[in-house]
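Case study 2.
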Amino acid sequence: MKNKKRILLVMIIMNILLTGCWNRTEPERMLYVHGLGIDYKDGEFHVYTQIIDFASTAKMNQPTRSRAQSEVGLGTGKTVDEAIFKLYNSVDRRVYWGHLSYIVFSEEAMTAGAVNPVVDTFIRYRDTRYEVQLYGTSDPVKDILLTTPIINTAITLSKLGDPRNSFEQNSFIHPITMRTLIIGLDEPSHEMTLPYVIVKENWETVDQTSKVADLAGVGILSPKEFKGFIAHDKARGIQWMTDKSKRIEVSVKSGEEETNRQSLIVDSLKRKVTPTVNGSTVSFKIDVSFDIAVSSVQGKTTYGKLVKAVEKQVEKEIRETYEEGLKLDADVYRLSEYLYRKDVKSWKRLQKEGKVELDEESIDSIHVHVRRVKSGRKSLTEVYGP
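Prediction:
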């Protein structure tokens, strides 16, 4: 009998010891941050915090329609932490930051130099990850955070929180995370391009027009200052200057008639930049090659005309974006880094604050080469062509 009592006592003690973590907050009793908007006005940070409801996003591609997927709160303060702690005064539960997916900076915040202290704050906090996506905007950041994915897709799969998915289909601007920003600003030319987003109303249902986040270009950021935005078609050259581009659309006119147009899909992109030092100046030779697949044909053309038109268009876009960067005193293609990698002695001699002096003549040549043309199941003729 005594042995049975001892065994029962031991089991009771073991059950008490194995009851779990008493000091941990249960998941359903926490609020989860998905996105942040950082603005700067009158010497204070305005931090917009997007809280998401995981109960309504449990079914990843079909959340419930009975309630909003997210709410946005505002806190203000002299520092980001002060603004966040003021926001805590109006929340009902503990706030968890481990699911923070993206941060949007207003133009005013970037101009005021807010990016560095914000990134510094979050890399010190153990719950946040280095893979948080970063964006800049000229629209109100609150409006960006209030955008919703189309057809009621789960907000966790939005373009802001999960940009790599859509980048595979249209490689306009490569996503930037806190990790890539820190690395990029620590290397010559000490300038980075930040995806530029705006609010757009180009989707609608029978009931309403949807406000969505639209990727519209890049912002140029250095460790000391924000240099400005390059928007829309003026930024298209960037996609040709990175091996990370997966799929690019390009439209050309390969005949005299304005309606004689073709759309093509570019893949297998390769680029090479070769610096040449001549005394106190440096010039760069750019070589870009890729395959093209014919997507649509309007009018008559030939393979020779098509290739020539594509190569001319790509060269134009590369040069145009470079010249837009010069207007902002920005090394938009990070050409200085190519010299740094190849000839560090010349780079040390010519650089100023990590960047070599650039002008319109710094690009010596741009050579674009179409390696292969794929026309699919048809030749280069319209559906009802002769």
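Residues 238-386 form a domain with the GMP Synthetase; Chain A, domain 3 fold (CATH 3.30.300.210).
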